[in-house]
TrEMBL record:
Keywords: Hydrolase. SUPFAM superfamilies: HD-domain/PDEase-like. InterPro entries: HD_domain. It holds the Pfam family HD. Residues 40-143 form the HD domain. The keyword Isomerase does not apply. This is Hydrolase. One of its GO terms (molecular function) is hydrolase activity.
Length: 175
């Protein structure tokens, strides 16, 4: 997403996920930190919206992509501190998200697959649908972007200050 609120300008996208965004179970995601600079709700919307746009461009099922993308991380624990006996976080949380998603909406086969296989690469669960592959790839991209994006911005600002100090003659002329 170019900006945090870009999705609000797309009425079709909003109409597809509005009922889910109104659910307390989805709103609650805002209380959980995801990738250092984002909360889980912001992350889920970003994954959902970018996946929806890609699916639409590719003439795929963008409705299922938008809805399941939004629910792909519907779990309520801090994955940095909570550990499981049954398996890794990468293995467990898609199952937890699927169970929680089924409590708030009906999911079709594709939506179930999207949620369950979104950790493809980290787990051996191979996506059955192109839409599932899109969400898993966008999820990976967003994780990197959310983590490094603000850091990159900070470095760019610092570089500008350094550049400014490194060229005093040029700057003094401006003054
Ligand atoms: Fe996830
Ligand atoms: Fe995610």
């Amino acid at each position: 997403m170019k900006t945090e609120n870009e999705w609000r300008q797309d009425p079709e996208y909003v109409s597809l996920v509005k009922d889910l965004l109104e659910q307390p179970a989805v709103k609650r995601l805002a209380h959980y930190k995801q990738h250092h600079h984002s909360n889980r709700l912001q992350h889920s919307i970003a994954v959902s919206f970018d996946s929806y746009k890609l699916a639409k461009k590719m003439h795929l099922d963008y409705k299922s992509t938008a809805r399941a993308g939004l629910l792909h991380d519907l779990f309520y624990y801090d994955w940095r501190t909570t550990k499981f006996n049954l398996g890794s976080h990468a293995f467990i949380h898609p199952r937890v998200a699927l169970r929680n998603a089924e409590k708030i909406t009906h999911l079709n086969k594709k939506e179930r697959d999207i949620i369950l296989k979104h950790m493809f690469g980290a787990t051996m669960a191979v996506p059955r649908y192109m839409e599932s592959l899109i969400v898993s790839m966008v999820d990976n991209y967003e994780a990197e972007h959310e983590f490094f994006g603000p850091l990159r911005k900070k470095l760019e600002q610092q570089k500008k200050v350094v550049d400014w100090h490194a060229t005093p003659s040029k700057n003094s002329k401006k003054i």
